Amino acid sequence: MLLPGRHLLGIEGLNPAVINSLLDLAESYALLNRSGKTRRDVLRSKTLINLFFEDSTRTRTSFELAGKRLGADVINMPVSTSSVSKGETLLDTAATLNAMNCDILVVRHKSSGAPALLAQKVDAAVINAGDGMHEHPTQALLDALTIRRHRGRLEGLIVVICGDIAHSRVARSNFLLLTSMGCHVRVIGPPTLIPAGIEQFGVTVYHDMRPALEGADVVMALRLQTERMIVDQTGGGLIPSAREYFTYFGLDPAKLSYAKPDVLVMHPGPMNRGVEIASQVADDSAHSVIREQVEMGVAVRMAVLDTLAQRAFGNV
Ligand code: CP
Asked: Cα of 59 to ligand 1 centre, how many Å?
């Protein structure tokens, strides 16, 4: 199954058949990765450039691994020491890389829509690796793959997404993917961190952890994205303090007990332990699949690159 376009800019626009096809392919790459048979030549003689204007550990490293395992030449462009620091614009930077005949640009940027803008200007296939508060499509795909591996399906599951919904591209991509695959998605957080009109995504809003978590199959904790929060002129923030936030919304063993006994605990990372999640919960292998999410990130990015190569390059 091909992607609807040359690029992967978001979950928006992907139908359930395409999503299932990506997850099936990612599952086969996950098995190959575990067996140690990691080398493929799907992207032989192709160049992939990681262009990250925001920090990353998981996404950038897994795109690098995925690209190399598929045979691509992978370049991590160090934005902080590039000519961006001399004032070169995003578009000029992308045009420069495009002139070097790069085939795939993996882009992370603080501005929502930056990858979509680049996709209109370059010949390379563009993958959105997280843009502002908009989307993080490969994160949602790896989350879905992780859930599917444990539950065997997505349809009908109750998935609770906790915390800073307002600033989270992970939440947005997950709403789009999980609701389209038949999950019941609940969001929970303080009113200041739940954007108005969020119900249009087909999710149910809660402000109290107990009813939100009751009957949950999956609980996903999100980081407070303080770098995206606008503090008012008096220095007032969106939460009174990290300690108070943890008391009411932090995922700890007591709150987790409201969910189903076999609930899965997820977090996209990076985690702030003691703020949105307790170490006891994050490290409890009976429930936590946080490390597996990271592992599935490589498999999902291999599947995305492979599928995109079929569309963009046809012959490979
Ligand atoms: N989940 C995620 O995007 O992590 P990184 O910021 O480390 O890439």
From this structure: 5
Overall pTM > 0.85 = yes
Q: What is the pLDDT of residues 53-77, one digit of tens each?
A: 999 999 999 999 999 999 999 999 9
Are 289 and 150 within 8 A, CB to CB?
yes
Which of 51, 53, 57 best tests ligand 1's pocket when mutated (most atoms within 8 Å of CB)?
57
Tell which phi-psi region holds residue 130, choosing left (phi > 0), alpha (psi between -120 and 50) or beta: left
Measured CA to CA, the distance from residue 244 to residue 197 in angstroms comes to: 26
Amino acid at 133: M
pLDDT (tens digit per residue) in 156-195: 999 999 999 999 999 999 999 999 999 999 999 999 999 9
Atom of ligand 1 nearest to the CA of 130: 3
d(CA 160, CA 286): 18
